[in-house]
Specification:
Blueprint lengths: L6 E5 L5 H11 L3 E6 L12 E2 L6 H15 L8 E4 L10 H11 L2 E6 L4 H8 L10 H11 L2 H12 L3 E4 L2 H8 L31 E6 L7 H15 L3 E6 L4 H9 L3 E3 L10 H8 L3 E4 L3 H6 L8 E2 L4 H14 L2 H15 L2 H14 L2
Parallel strand pairs: 1-2, 1-4, 2-3, 4-5, 5-6, 7-8, 7-9, 9-10, 10-11
Helix pairs in contact: 1-14, 4-5, 4-7, 8-12, 10-13
């Protein structure tokens, strides 16, 4: 491995990914700064250049752009700029921002860790079977991800990037089927630090506690709610089914500590969301999608999760299997060990550094 002490800039936290990767690279000897907006997984203290408007509505969008432009003088002389998702390159200032980044820094990489126009056009429009499609969702996605703007910004970013690095099979497959396949680098899973407070909390309630944190329809929350309703009628004597609202990260961690089984999204091919990894790191049984192709993308034979698909019947059957056949404590312990080893930040940082050095 060449000298690892690179100066890196990460653009956008994106559900905790940017913060975790920043810490991973720092521990590997790099100097790293993070510019980001915020979401429920973000801790503002971990963000070096915070882009946060004080206003609301349309004015906040203008303010976001102004605040980003005010940070440009600090975004210079980096060996590596990693854009974790194209959403941070705001419409109206994209040409200036990308020109600045490419001129004043050595190289740019794009991480594919969320939906974009390439994945949408390659996967959704070809009925990629792991994603959920219906008329309403298709219309919403088409408006959001198939616009000329989205296609143009991706083209502009890729033209300035050394490589595109996906985090899961579904993103890698979407880009493999696109006109940008020659830019595709290796698929690198998410790094994950187990919370400092991470201790498995035994559920004092004799009933098995299933939990789902409410999310969007395109992640399958409506299907999970229906499955919970059915199972609550069938298994009310042995299990408790809870649907939770969105919580700040600290409260969400406490909630996950108190449950037995976390039911995450059911409309993706891979298990590797930040929520799934959090549940696993806390020693919980996690139910999520886990396609064989997704495992092959990571060169894995298996992962210690309970597989569900995007249908009510699949979720109900999986819950029945957990109640009838799964040693919850043992599977939870296996899940924690798996995250601590396969998603170990030091290992993930080494993989990123290997790619970075190839193009410096």
């Amino acid at each position: 491995m060449p000298n690892k002490q690179l100066k890196c800039l990460i653009l956008e936290d994106y559900s905790g990914f940017g913060v975790t990767l920043k810490k991973s690279l720092i521990h590997s000897g790099c100097t790293v700064k993070l510019l980001s907006t915020t979401d429920k997984y973000s801790r503002e203290g971990d963000i070096d250049y915070l882009i946060k408007p004080r206003s609301v509505g349309l004015i906040s969008k203008v303010e976001l752009r102004i605040r980003f432009l005010m940070k440009l003088p600090f975004l210079v002389s980096y060996d590596v700029v990693l854009i974790t998702n194209q959403s941070i390159i705001f419409k109206g200032i994209s040409w200036l921002v990308l020109s600045w980044l490419s001129f004043f820094n050595r190289t740019i990489f794009l991480s594919v860790c969320g939906m974009d126009s390439v994945t949408f056009r390659s996967s959704f429009m070809s009925n990629f079977k792991y994603f959920r499609n219906n008329d309403l969702l298709s219309k919403e996605r088409n408006k959001r991800y198939n616009s000329r703007w989205d296609q143009a910004i991706i083209k502009s970013i890729v033209s300035r990037s050394s490589r595109v690095i996906p985090i899961t099979y579904e993103y890698a497959e979407g880009w493999r089927q696109s006109e940008y396949s020659n830019f595709l680098g290796p698929t690198i899973p998410l790094p994950f630090y187990s919370p400092v407070c991470a201790e498995t909390v035994n559920n004092s309630n004799k009933k098995i506690h299933f939990y789902h944190g409410l999310s969007r329809e395109d992640k399958g929350s409506d299907l999970i709610v229906k499955a919970f309703d059915k199972c609550n009628k069938k298994y009310s004597s042995v299990a408790f089914f809870e649907i939770g609202e969105r919580l700040p990260l600290s409260e969400f961690i406490k909630k996950i500590q108190s449950i037995d089984v976390l039911v995450d999204q059911c409309t993706a091919a891979s298990y590797g969301s930040m929520t799934t990894l959090l549940g696993m790191s806390l020693g919980k049984v996690v139910m999520t999608q886990n396609a064989s192709q997704a495992l092959l993308e990571y060169n894995l034979d298996s992962a210690p999760v309970i597989t569900i698909e995007n249908s009510v019947e699949s979720i109900v059957n999986a819950i029945s299997y957990v109640l009838d056949s799964v040693d919850i404590k043992q599977l939870g312990e296996e899940a924690k060990v798996f995250v601590d080893t396969f998603h170990a930040p030091s290992k993930i940082a080494e993989r990123y550094l290997t790619v970075f050095h190839q193009y410096l």
